[in-house]
């Protein structure tokens, strides 16, 4: 398995509080890696380190290294270049206060694409990929913020795909989405696996079980265990804590 | 227990009444002011004043014995020119400062800035006028080799300095009200800082930013003492920004004390008041329509 992302000894502190206490693991190319763990265990922090939006949080200090395709992300000069490699989907859908079309075209335009026909094509493809096209194709000019929660979340996925990322990070995407839409998005993710590497942070252990190739279990900033789903969700993972968590004995 | 709940329902009703009165009093005062200004000016407005001449003549000779003229066009031009110039300066500066304070400042610097800006807003207008009359006057004479420094330029700069704090503090509030999740989402998409501001923050905050600009305009149109002192107070149609002018507000302030109560001159000054009322009303109405148009899109 080729390594897409290598994380080694990653430590993050917010002032006195330590959010990640030295975690190391790899993310393989074209896999869906699940990251599970209770609230406040450092899952979102992990994603913020990867696309370096952690730099906007005052007082956050990062130690250790993260490499993507072998390049240390800290040494990448153009941070926007890095962020365009990574699609990010947040817990609550954030439709930007723009039209549906402009929402999806935002990142390509920011990267300098002006050609109208190419933009049209890209917007359509991303909306089809995120299973939203049929519902919005007749009203691409209306405000993205007026869509329902589930539709907005698929819009943000379309937006995250719009700059053709190599890595897609989803942070508890199903928190504000109904079960039917959740299943549709999960199907979308399964299809995307052949093109992108996906990191799926989730509170739903069953979602990780359904969807992921491997799952990492993080607790209070420590990586407890990472392994293939066959092992993680079996009766005898390496750590007893993993067994207890995935079987709902705590957390 | 029954008594207590009865007491509660009575106090509840009293408090509701007081709050209701506070709300309606705002409307009452506006109509009250309009009514009294209108009553003072109405006699001459409906009989005697040539409205066409009033609005289109640049000749303002209210105290002339042989050739009385009540034309406010030059005064209107004075107000318009000073306001336009001040807004041309204050809007870019104010919005730029609002963006800086809201998006680029560290928390400590931000506090300092806000305190200084609020201080700037608290300076009385007569002090601004004094600065225009003494400091700016000399500067403009030296800089432009002009015969007099009390000009449209002087008044425009002074008014801009007075409007900037309002535009900054309200504009900053408008930008602060834009949810952080918008910024995060745009940044995660690889947008640069400027792209985040231009493509996301400005569209998201445009109602509030428009309100900030309009309040700035309102201040500039209505300001009296500072422009009276800084613009030279001479009735003429300005041909460039180094001409002296007189504004509508300054005319009322300067002449009302000398005009005999009830005379034509006295009544015309109140009609100018009605005109000012109408201008602010139109500005507010226009902004309401613009904001509604934006919202419905």
Q: What's the short story on this structure?
A:
The complex is a heterodimer of chains A (251) and B (297). Helices cover 35% and strands 27% of the residues of chain A. Chain A is an alpha/beta fold and 251 residues long.
Detailed description of the structure:
The complex is a heterodimer of chains A (251) and B (297). Chain A has one domain: Rossmann fold (3-Layer(aba) Sandwich), CATH 3.40.50.300. Chain A is 35% helix and 27% strand. Chain A is built from 10 helices and 10 strands. Chain A is globular. Chain B has a two-stranded antiparallel ribbon. Chain B is 77% helix and 1% strand. Chain B is mainly alpha-helical and 297 residues long. The mean pLDDT of chain B is 89. Chain B has 2 domains: 2-47; 69-296, MetI-like (MetI-like fold, Orthogonal Bundle). In chain B, helix 6 runs antiparallel to helix 9. Chain B has helices at 2-46, 51-56, 73-104, 107-121, 125-144, 152-176, 180-188, 193-204, 206-222, 225-230, 248-255, 264-296, and strands at residues 60-61, 69-70. Chain B is globular and about 75 Å long. The chains are: A alpha/beta (251), B mainly alpha (297). Chains A and B meet through helix 2, helix 3 and helix 6 of A and helix 7 and helix 8 of B.
CATH topology of the largest domain in chain B: MetI-like fold
Contiguous uncertain segments of 5+ residues of chain B:
none
Structural shape of chain B: globular
Average pLDDT for all residues of chain B: 89
Instruction: Assign the CATH class of chain A.
Output: Alpha Beta
Structural class of chain A: alpha/beta
User: Can you say what the CATH homologous superfamily of chain A is?
Assistant: P-loop containing nucleotide triphosphate hydrolases
Could you say what the CATH architecture of chain A is?
A: 3-Layer(aba) Sandwich
Give the oligomer, counting copies of the same chain as homo and different chains as hetero.
heterodimer
Fraction of residues in helix of chain A: 25-40%
CATH topology annotation of chain A:
Rossmann fold
Q: How many E-type strands of chain B?
A: 2
For the secondary structure, the number of strands of chain A is 10
Question: Compute the gyration radius of chain B: what is it?
Answer: 24 Å
CATH superfamily of the largest domain in chain B: MetI-like
User: Could you describe the largest sheet of chain B, including whether it forms a barrel?
Assistant: 2 strands, antiparallel
């Amino acid at each position: 398995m080729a390594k897409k992302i290598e994380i080694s000894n990653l430590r993050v502190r917010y002032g006195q509080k330590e959010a990640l206490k030295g975690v190391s693991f790899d993310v393989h190319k074209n896999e869906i890696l699940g990251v599970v763990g209770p609230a406040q265990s450092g899952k979102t922090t992990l994603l913020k380190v990867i696309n370096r939006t952690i730099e906007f949080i005052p007082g956050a200090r990062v130690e250790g290294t993260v490499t993507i395709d072998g390049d240390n992300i800290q040494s990448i000069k153009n941070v926007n270049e890095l962020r365009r490699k990574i699609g990010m989907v947040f817990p609550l859908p954030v439709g930007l206060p723009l039209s549906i079309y402009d929402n999806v075209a935002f990142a390509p335009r920011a990267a300098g694409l002006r050609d109208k026909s190419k933009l049209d094509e890209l917007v359509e493809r991303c909306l089809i990929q995120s299973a939203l096209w049929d519902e919005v194709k007749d009203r691409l000019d209306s405000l993205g913020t007026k869509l329902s929660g589930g539709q907005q979340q698929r819009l943000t996925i379309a937006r995250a795909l719009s700059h053709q990322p190599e890595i897609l990070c989803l942070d508890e995407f199903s928190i504000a989405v109904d079960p039917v839409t959740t299943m549709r998005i999960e199907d979308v993710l399964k299809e995307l696996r052949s093109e992108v590497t996906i990191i799926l942070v989730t509170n739903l252990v069953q979602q990780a079980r359904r969807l992921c190739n491997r799952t990492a279990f993080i607790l209070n900033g420590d990586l407890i265990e990472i392994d293939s789903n066959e092992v993680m969700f079996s009766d005898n993972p390496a750590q007893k804590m993993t067994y207890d968590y995935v079987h709902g004995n705590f957390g | 227990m029954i008594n207590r709940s009865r007491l509660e329902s009575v106090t509840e009703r009293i408090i509701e009444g007081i709050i209701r009165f506070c709300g309606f009093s705002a409307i009452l005062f506006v109509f009250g002011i309009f009514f009294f200004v209108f009553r003072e000016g109405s006699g001459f407005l409906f009989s005697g004043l040539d409205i066409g001449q009033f609005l289109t003549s640049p000749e303002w000779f209210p105290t002339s014995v042989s050739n009385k003229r009540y034309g406010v066009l030059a005064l209107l031009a004075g107000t318009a020119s000073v306001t336009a110039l001040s807004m041309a300066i204050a809007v870019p500066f104010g919005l730029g400062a609002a963006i800086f304070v809201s998006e680029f400042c560290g928390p400590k610097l931000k506090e300092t800035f806000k305190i200084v800006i609020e201080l700037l807003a608290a300076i009385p207008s007569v002090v601004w006028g004094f600065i225009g009359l003494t400091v700016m006057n000399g500067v403009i004479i030296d800089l432009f080799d002009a015969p007099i420094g009390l000009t449209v330029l002087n008044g425009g700069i002074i008014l801009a300095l007075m409007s900037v704090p309002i535009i900054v503090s309200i504009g900053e509030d408008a930008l602060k009200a834009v949810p952080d999740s918008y910024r995060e989402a745009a940044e995660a998409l690889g947008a640069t800082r400027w792209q985040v501001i231009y493509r996301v923050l400005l569209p998201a905050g445009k109602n509030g930013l428009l309100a900030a600009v309009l309040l700035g305009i309102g201040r500039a149109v209505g300001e009296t003492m500072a422009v009276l002192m800084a613009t030279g107070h001479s009735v003429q149609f300005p041909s460039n920004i180094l001409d002296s002018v007189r504004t509508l507000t300054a005319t009322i302030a300067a002449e009302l004390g000398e005009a005999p109560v009830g005379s034509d001159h006295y009544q015309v000054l109140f009609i100018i008041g009605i005109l000012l009322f109408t201008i602010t009303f139109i500005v507010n109405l226009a902004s309401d329509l613009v904001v509604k148009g934006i919202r419905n899109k």
